[in-house]
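Need tokens for this chain, all 354 residues.
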Amino acid sequence: MAKMNILCNRQRGYANFRRYLFSQTVELNYLIADDQSDRSSRQWYYFLSFSVLIITEIRLILLLFLDEVSNLSYYLGDITLVAGAFRKQLLFIYISWISATFTCSVVLFTSQFNPRLQKWAVIGVIFDHLTTTSVHPVSDLPSYLHRYFIVASKVTFYTAAVGGFLIGLPSYFNFPSEYTYYLHFWTIVTMYAGVLVIGHSGNFGPLFAFKVYLFGHQITNEKKFLTRQLKTLSISDSRNAEKLKRCEQQTRRIVAQSCRSATRILRLLIDGYQFWSRINHPLFMATFNAQSIILYLVFFIDIPRFLRIALIILGILSWLSGLSCHFIAGAYGQRKVVLENTSNLLLLIATLGR
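Here are the structure tokens for all 354 residues:
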């Protein structure tokens, strides 16, 4: 515990980011609150989350191995019975998401003890300056877009609970009355598990996309700065030996400054890689597996309407929190690295060749 407190003191306290994560049932002690009343530790969140996720995972695996409906199906609140012959496909979706969420929860918990997993938290800057400026000083986006992002994340968070309820709702119409109490219990567990899926894994996809956008924005700003600096050299009179020497010195200084700045930007990206890679890998696999099965069930299989609506909600959340973020953000980041750095190199070559 002493080691964790030392690490906490070394980390900048993005208080708004800490409150945002807390609203998603995530507690990170290395994000220090600015309010004394908000500094109490809530590590019991992880105990509750781990318990719900492990219980849910064991329950789903047991149901997966049941080939026929039995009393155990009702005791475990099997909400996939309404899918008939395709219940195992649903179970694969739920198992995939719960497994990914548990992995992400472990990463979040262990990040409190590993300094290399804490450097990702610089993304917390997007939650600052939201009421003091109309344009965010870091992203150069309107501040209201940042606020909409927070609201959308919270809406998605609570929508997961609604989706969990809708998934279990059809079972109330075909469960024997003597097992209804068990279904009540497992419906509540399912709703909380759905909340954890979004809070501990799903909402980190959009955060990663925002991180990649900031990286691309910094690269673009660096190119603009380099272009302005090189334009000042183009008007220099290089026919005079003294001015030529001065121009060469300025060029070396600009090149060195550009290299240091680009290295700093890339280092910030690399520093967060340890965390983001451990979050993104299970998140991508969960969303990819879920999306494939959901498309099949929604468009090609006759299932109850409530279940279809719930699966559509789950599919939309899967696409928004996983596949869209990784494909679009990844392509954007690669484009910025290749095009902007190549453009900077060509600018330097053109300048030095004059």
